[in-house]
Amino acid sequence: MRILANFKDFLETTRSVLPLAVILILFQLVILKRPIKNVKDIIFGILLCIFGLHIFLKGVLMSLHPLGDSVGENLVFMSNKWLIVGAAFIIGYLGTLVEPALKTLALEVEEVSIGAIPHKTLTHAVAVGFGVGMGIGIYKILFDIPYAKIITLLLLLVLILILFTPDEFISIAMDSASATTGPVNIPINMAIAIGLAKVLENVDPLTSGFGIVGLTSIGAMISVLILGILTKI
Fold first, then answer.
1. What is the DSSP-derived secondary structure letter of residue 204?
2. Domain count across the chain
3. How far apart are CA 66 and CA 157, in angstroms?
4. What Cα–Cα distance (Å) separates residue 169 from each residue in 24, 59, 78, 96, 165?
5. Transmembrane segments in this chain: where (predicted)?
6. pLDDT (mean) for 111-130
7. pLDDT-derived band of residue 192, with 50, 70 and 90 as boundaries?
8. Same domain, 89 and 26
9. pLDDT tens digits, 44-65
10. How many helices (H) and strands (E) does the chain have?
């Protein structure tokens, strides 16, 4: 039964990757009418992508997700709620530093800006913002604050910061927010938030446990906008 379940999961991964590869190949051959170079390398790369993604997702579901859920459930044993918020910030910050999509974005920004925006500076700025957003999300759960109130204030802050931020940093901030929603960060932080919401009294996990991804993304956006203002000053 376990082998059958693993095979079904592998087929699901294949169905996710293969159609995209086929569409790109057909677009190149039929629409653009251009030959495909290094066909053997591309086929081998697609196979590696399918197997690699399957193994990675399986590993996340077997380790990071249940571990994050366990951490969230046990956070309540910390005596001080502000310590819980601080722990959430540290987890969010460290998790963002290893996010592959963010590393790729930061290196692209450094290359295009000819080193004016170092990739380490951008990476740490986004990580700080993500951590702050994670802390705000946990604070919202602990004190049962309506999501609408927090998101409204944060979006208002974003609009104000945009008025003073250089245009190039506005675009980078938008992409930085989406770059944090990768395969490493989101399973861990969602599991922590939902795990915490499940064990708190008078807290509905559906209304409080979810929404953490939006807050962390906005936090990352705000930190990059502030970085842009600081570089302008």
1. -
2. 2
3. 34
4. 31, 35, 38, 19, 7
5. 16-32, 44-62, 82-102, 122-141, 147-165, 209-230
6. 91
7. confident
8. no
9. 999 998 888 888 888 877 877 7
10. 11, 0
Instruction: Find how far residue 213's CA is from the centre of its chain.
Output: 7
Q: Are residues 49 and 133 in the same domain?
A: no
The overall pTM is greater than 0.70? yes
Residue 23 CB-density burial (10 A; 0-12 exposed, 13-18 middle, 19+ buried): exposed
Beta strands in 46-171 (DSSP E): none
C-alpha torsion sign, points 37, 41, 47, 49 = negative
Whether 165 maps to a domain, the answer reads yes
Q: Which two tokens stand for residue 48?
A: 């590696």
139-187 pLDDT per residue, tens: 998 888 888 899 999 999 999 999 999 988 999 999 998 888 777 777 7
What residue numbers bound the domain in which 21 lies?
1-63
